[in-house]
């Protein structure tokens, strides 16, 4: 089932999310719905707060980057089948050079900005079968994971841009809050909730 994506301004996007247990109600269905929602919106990642749930769960599928000619061929190949579920993730290390990439977010449609992130991460998480893992990722996979991890910490990519850039996008962010934008996917806007 395609879920509505929560738009910028909703307090759930600013919550530090809670851990869940293996018996979280309908977890497998929720994950399936999140993948369907993400694919419907042409995303490469989606975190539970973006569908209104303040839990430590996010998904990634970097397959769309496998066609990006700006990336090295070996990285493109590895991104083609990089599809993961992260439950109760905990970032252990962010290291290496910081590099810029023009990021967007399904909760903040029509806003894209360059964001600097570390090139390599080490993260601990549980997979969909609640098997605990500690893994290292780099390049584009690390970037997508960092973006989604920020969501479960109540951080948005716009928090990483300069004060000047924030001023420049302020009106667009307000328009998202008020539901004055059109996205190609189902959204739920904070300021339109019966106000």
UniProtKB/TrEMBL annotation:
SUPFAM superfamilies: Peptide deformylase (SSF56420). Fe cation binds at residues 105, 147, 151. This is Peptide deformylase. It catalyses: N-terminal N-formyl-L-methionyl-[peptide] + H2O = N-terminal L-methionyl-[peptide] + formate. Its EC number is 3.5.1.88. Binds 1 Fe(2+) ion. Keywords: Hydrolase, Iron, Metal-binding, Protein biosynthesis. Gene3D superfamilies: Peptide deformylase. One of its GO terms (biological process) is translation. The lineage of its organism: Bacteria, Pseudomonadati, Bacteroidota, Flavobacteriia, Flavobacteriales. The active site is at residue 148. Belongs to the polypeptide deformylase family. One of its GO terms (molecular function) is metal ion binding. It is an enzyme of class 3 (hydrolase). Its cofactor is Fe(2+). The gene is def. Removes the formyl group from the N-terminal Met of newly synthesized proteins. Requires at least a dipeptide for an efficient rate of reaction. N-terminal L-methionine is a prerequisite for activity but the enzyme has broad specificity at other positions.
